Amino acid sequence: MGKRPFTPIPPMAELPPAEEINVRELLDKYISGEIDLICVLGPTASGKTRYAVRLARQINDLLQERKGHDESTGGEIISADSRQVYRGMDIGTGKDLDEYEEIPYHLMDIVNAGEKYNIFEYQRDFEKAYKDIRERGGIPILCGGSGLYIEAATCGYSLPEVPPDPELRAELEKKSDEELISQLASLKPLHNSTDYDTRKRLIRALEIAIYEAGHPVQRTAYLPKNTYYIGTLVSRDERNARIDRRLDARLEEGMTEEIKGLMDGTHPALAPEHKPVPAEDLIYYGLEYKFVTLYLTGELTFDEMRTQLATAIHQFAKRQMTWFRGMERKGIRIHWTNV
């Protein structure tokens, strides 16, 4: 056999340059109205929760210096994590609630495990929490790694609550992209190409436009207009090492037992009338819940589960960074900082 041809390893994407965040200047921007939300984002295991809590405390200390600070007018954290909304899914989602201590937090433990929570519901719930904090004189700090949730909260677009229409989608699938774009343009102005950069998005945009033509649609309105984005910066090697250490720690802390309790209905977070969470629903939540469930149902050995799960989390973190860099390409300024 001849030698296999050498395939060079592609270079790792360069990290964005790190900045020092001046918290005093950041607070001045918020008080003056130049910004109306602080967002701390980053891939999993980048230290964003710890940083957001520290930032809230620094803001509170500065407020104390200036005018006297009470608990109703300080920094409060709104989660932007698509799985931390679920009750009982604690170790697997890394809620780390003990990190918050005196800092109020929102949009965690608001949905029963086993239910399906969507982006429209998140935007609605974010809007309610954001408005409440602002009206009480607090300072909202959005923190998370779910890029879609972050964009829904901060990019100024309202998501109408339009139910899916399988029959309409089947009809639209028969048309070419050009026909679909033309139809969409006849129903609404096309401000940019984001409505039709993929066929799936194009069909959904048409589904919404057609529905709105014949139905009144409730839209969200109270959303931030000027967000200051802070990204938590960590190298890929360090991030992967943290992921591996954290995964082992969570397994030792009882993540497998947590998921088993959800499966058999014995988890203390489940209400008495709440049924056990089916394996397929846990698999739907992905990552820890998918692979540990496959282990508990006998489809993977423990070692297979541990290895495949670590790899999946590494890949997930890479996709998160790709999403955030994509936000930058769309014109969003992220102030990356070492934590």
Question: What can you see in these coordinates?
Answer:
The chain has 339 residues and is of the alpha/beta class. The chain has three domains: 23-157 and 221-234 and 320-338, Rossmann fold (3-Layer(aba) Sandwich); 166-214; 236-319, Helix Hairpins, CATH 1.10.287.890. The chain contains twelve helices and eight strands. The chain has helices spanning 23-32, 48-67, 119-135, 147-154, 166-173, 177-187, 199-214, 236-253, 255-264, 279-284, 287-296, 302-329; strands at residues 37-41, 75-80, 86-87, 105-106, 111-112, 139-144, 227-233, 334-338. Strands 4-2-6-1-7-8 form a six-stranded parallel sheet, with helices on both faces. Strands 3-5 form a two-stranded parallel ribbon. The longest helix is centred in the C-terminal third of the chain and has 28 residues, at 302-329. It is globular and about 60 Å long. It starts with 22 loop residues before the first helix and ends with a strand.
